[in-house]
Amino acid sequence: MVQSAVVENDSDAFSVSLLAFWVKGSITLDDAFLRVNMPNTVFFGLVPAGKQKDSSPLSGITNVYTSKSYKLSSIFLGLLIAIIGVALMGSSFFSALIAIIVGVLLIGSGIRTTFNYERSGISKTIDLPFFEAHHSEELEEKLTQKLATYQADRNVRAQTDRTIQQGAQNTQQIVNAVSGDANNAASSASAFCGSCGAPLAQGAKFCNKCGAQAN
After folding, report:
1. Which residues pair with 206 in a beta bridge?
2. What residue stretches are annotated with the Zinc-ribbon domain (predicted)?
């Protein structure tokens, strides 16, 4: 027996079947992941069976969109069964009612809403009943905004890292330049004043500090 997924927020809950509309799965979104926990369906999408689970990091999600499609085989089959049900109204009301209900359900199951996204280049699809179309579009908009925010934050972090790295390089260049000037000054002082001990510039005749004549 397929049970609904436990969700904390009703906005994250999605019906998967027109027949068993109370059976719901969840598609949740946080700052890092898109998490899917949805029942699968069989028999023209009317009967929930099995489950699909997936956790996709936002960094790998692209091309998010909601699409609508029509399965003509389900619609035509449902229409045919509904017509047969109407024809049976005179002979067996109960059988006619069952046939009409099945026909209407098949027609409704042929109108599908699909939530689509790509994860690292691999297409992912989640089939939903037609009455979940607006809900799916809201999820699409929410996920698109979340991806835009995530990308902007990642760009800011990358720019900050580059700025820090460039600042460290500039600081090191300044330190190297200062060290080089000090080394050059020390190497250029090849003699010292005999009176005060101050370093003498190369070729100097007198001490710049005390005025004594260089030896």
Report:
1. 213
2. 192-212
